[in-house]
Amino acid sequence: MNHLKMHSLNKIDENVSKIAALFPNCVTEAKAEDGSITKKIDFDMLKQELSSSFVEGREERYQFTWPDKKKSVLLANAPIPKTLRPCREESVDFDNTENLYIEGDNLEVLKLLQETYLGKIKMIYIDPPYNTGNDFVYEDDFAQNASDYIANSGQTDEEGNRLVANTESNGRFHTDWLNMMYPRLKLARDLLSDDGVIFISIDDSEVKNLRNVCDELYGEQNFVNHIIWHKKYGTANDAKYLSDVHDHILLYCKNKHNWSPNLFERPDELNAKYKNPDNDPRGPWIATNLSVKTYSAANDYVIKSPAGLEFTPPPSRCWVVSKEKYEEMLADNRITFGVDGKSRPYKKTFLSEVQNGIVPTTIWSYDDAGHTIGAKSEIRDLFKDIKTPFDTPKPTKLIKKIIELAESKTHDDYILDFFAGSGTTADAVMQKNMEDSGKRKFIMIQINEPTQEKSIAKLEGFDSVSQISKERIRRAGKKIKEDSPFTTENLDHGFRVLKVDSTNMEDVYYTPGHIDTNDLFKNNIKPDRTAEDLLFQVMLDLGIMLSSKIETKKINGKNVFCVEKNYLMSCFDESVDEVTITEIAKEKPYYFVMRDPSESKDGDSLITNFEQIFTTYSPDTVRKVL
């Protein structure tokens, strides 16, 4: 039975494997500091393979860079010995929900999700700090390699969950913000499905830099549009220069060839323009221009009206159809000359023939996408018993519009927001599911950012932003259920709360070659960790969805977890015997995980017996130990 690795994906090793697949001659072996043999890249050989495309030293080329950019790249690639611990008491409908709320530094969470949600997220929306001079940014701990992370397992003081004010007096004003955003956006891209998209809200302060970062990480060819959201009703009369009434939303695809936007629903006022004054059996229609700017001599001819009037195209224009096609349309009653037959000719465009929706535009008005006042009103409606704890939430109308634009036809996508803030995205997902009985799932990520002293939130008893966010989602789900009891019977209004923490494993687990003989039979699991804590780290390690259905049952007096029926069976009790293993093997799970029996004095013989039992009853089961 092999050990699980019990740390996040090592992106450096993954990249080495990708290079090895393309250029096996560029990968060699070298001895590491601990004496182990590891794969290394022969960069001289790789340069030769790419000699015609390789840029040497200071050779001039276009690039976007800033101080510590290289460290930012390394930060995204380095693994971390962390886990996600379930928190049932803060969750809603923990056992049945498919929604997740993850509390912790989003960089660490994105790393932990790399194997489980790789290529599974259809849509990401984020509203990161705008870097206006008063925002807070994540101050990450650069320059720790994989071995450093493992050696420092559990030492969280200097590992990054810190927030520092990024004031304009800081000489690294843009640098700090870029170093925060780059690794997170890099990891987020890997989570997107092949037809996945990401929407990023930002203001004027960093929109240029954000565009450059996204062009580099997602590819300039995968830029879709730059949306302008008109977010405010009025103007600021005290504005020093121009009154700021808009936000930017950048839209990028994982692969632009694999995604196309949905049409927006046609508003009633647009359909109301269609009339049927001549009782045409094809229904309501509107008169549309019969001429076009692109001139063609073949389409430049005289049209005679029923009243005998002759019409030619306007100067420098021509008719939209040839004379032959015009005669067909006239015979089919698709040309109108007005009620009296004396007006210029127009084409009849029938409501029944227009596409079932309208093409999205890049300017979104507050009428269609909500506004800041409406967003605050939504929060007030949910927190009627206390003062509003959020100052700058986004309206659910905006997020719903984004979902409508981006989602699959099946309405069952995973939607991720790793700057969850006030929880608007989760609220919007539940509202959309209520409206069309969809099965969309949200994944919210929010650092445990403390609320400011003397703030309304603090005075109302909220010590952190994540506390407010979770309470907002609880209240929103309850309100949706109460407002529409007959259409929300099967609505998933719950969420599993998971929290980032140090690994469940003791240091000895990661350095088995350095075990003192006196420690040989010591427990390698931290004493304060529960069996369910272990289960969720195992699920992360094996790439099993964190929203999977979990059941527990007794087998021969031992507690056994069954995830998605028998896809994963695990038993973390001590002193598991052959009878228990036999009963589990008969269930034929795809994975089976248990504590390492070799920690006991008869461990080697127990492992041999357990392997024989599985070989007999379930030879295809993948067996792992902690």
Q: How is this structure best described in words?
A:
Belongs to the N(4)/N(6)-methyltransferase family. The protein is of the alpha/beta class and 626 residues long. It is 30% helix and 20% strand. A hairpin with a 2-residue loop joins strand 23 and strand 24. The longest helix has 19 residues, at 173-191. The termini are close together.
Task: Based on the model shown, name its key terms.
single chain, 626 residues, alpha/beta, 6-stranded mixed sheet, 19 helices, 27 strands, elongated
Topology overview:
Elements: E1 2-3, H1 11-22, E2 27-31, E3 37-41, H2 43-49, H3 69-77, E4 82-86, E5 100-103, H4 106-112, E6 121-126, E7 136-138, H5 146-151, E8 163-165, H6 173-191, E9 192-202, H7 207-219, E10 223-230, E11 246-253, H8 268-271, E12 285-289, E13 291-292, E14 303-304, E15 310-311, E16 318-319, H9 323-331, E17 335-336, E18 346-350, E19 363-364, H10 366-369, H11 372-382, H12 396-406, E20 414-417, H13 424-436, E21 441-446, H14 456-459, H15 465-483, E22 496-502, H16 507-510, H17 531-542, E23 550-555, E24 558-563, E25 568-571, H18 578-586, E26 591-594, H19 603-617, E27 622-625
Parallel strand pairs: 1-27, 5-21, 5-22, 6-9, 6-20, 10-19, 20-21, 25-26, 26-27
Antiparallel strand pairs: 2-3, 4-22, 7-8, 9-11, 10-11, 12-18, 13-16, 14-15, 17-18, 23-24, 24-25
Helix pairs in contact: 3-6, 4-6, 6-7, 12-13, 13-15, 18-19
